[in-house]
Amino acid sequence: MADETRINVAAPQARRLIEDILQAYGVSPSNAAIVARCLVAADLRGVDTHGMNRIPSYMERIRQGVLDPTATPAVHHVTPVVAQVDGRNGFGFLAAHAGMAAAIDAAKTYGMGMAGVKGSNHFGMSAWIVQQALDAGMMSLVFTNSSPALPAWGGRSKLMGVSPIACGAPGKTPETSFILDMAPSVAARGKIYKAKRRGEKIPLDWALDAEGRRTDDPEAALGGVMLPMGGPKGSALAIMMDVFSGVLTGSAFAGHVTGPYDPSKPADVGHFLVAIRPDLFMSLDEFRERMQYLYHRVVGSDRMEGVDRIYFPGEIEQLAQAEREKSGIPLVQAEIDSLNAEAEKVTVAPLVTMG
């Protein structure tokens, strides 16, 4: 299936399908809109591993009774600048959205705001939370932990999650804003699930099988361990995510987070979110000018042989979004069939593809 033709779906149609399916399971219209917007944001940015194709696994968790579709997060203010959010085992998108909103509100008054989230679930692509802060004119730090997939450096058993580290800062224009969203593994685990779903092989430096051997088979890789980027450095970053997102917040940690594809028990994912006002030490205009200067220094620097263009972090995804908002989100038929099967289960209208 690796060379199967891609079929494009318009973003509004994708959001409609997700909202319809979620509401059929008891998710409120406002909460369904948040989840749909966040998932489709990943598809638009080219992060297909964290987009609408996650819906079948999320719905299976609801059917198994290990994710509460009706839950709305509870926000408790520990101090004027620190909030604790209990996700109440609902969608991670809702818990993270509420946490970042609380952090942004505090930062508006006090310069910084922080939220610790417990009792949450997978929240998809971290960049959408960074974008939530950018839309409010804020810098941000976004940490989460996740189910075990990486070994501690020197080990071979799954222990730490492939937990993304993300942050952002507003540029002079939205197109030149800084958005970093990266996993501490050589590749995101979602890319292995995507390869499995599409019948594709993976590069040999992504993962080990259960016997500790390099493999290009995504099925074997999912039965083994991901490899950390940079060896001990990637391993240490994964542990850092667990310290801030797991140990500090009171959520599961040390390999005890349940994966989004494991419908056996609640995930209890933790998140750590910070919003920072960028005009703390200078005017906002001066900050944005300095960011613009940094952008031009980076993309205008001398290129190595064979490189046509240097990109600022997040810029490739911005360009993908601009293109996909016009041309649509590319899926393969098996992915469309899987989404439409979920629609059929709750008797809502299937996806309508672009002509």
From TrEMBL:
Show the InterPro entries listed in the entry.
Answer: Mal/L-sulf/L-lact_DH-like_ah (IPR043144), Mal/L-sulf/L-lact_DH-like_NADP (IPR043143), Mal/L-sulfo/L-lacto_DH-like_sf (IPR036111), Malate/L-lactate_DH-like (IPR003767)
Extract the Pfam families matched here: Ldh_2 (PF02615)
GO MF assignments: oxidoreductase activity
Instruction: Supply the alphabetized keyword list.
Output: Oxidoreductase
Q: What is this protein called?
A: Putative oxidoreductase-like protein
Coiled coil stretches, renumbered: none
Native organism? Hapsidospora chrysogenum (strain ATCC 11550 / CBS 779.69 / DSM 880 / IAM 14645 / JCM 23072 / IMI 49137) (Acremonium chrysogenum)
Q: Which family does it belong to?
A: Belongs to the LDH2/MDH2 oxidoreductase family.
Asked if the keyword rRNA-binding belongs to this entry, the reply reads no
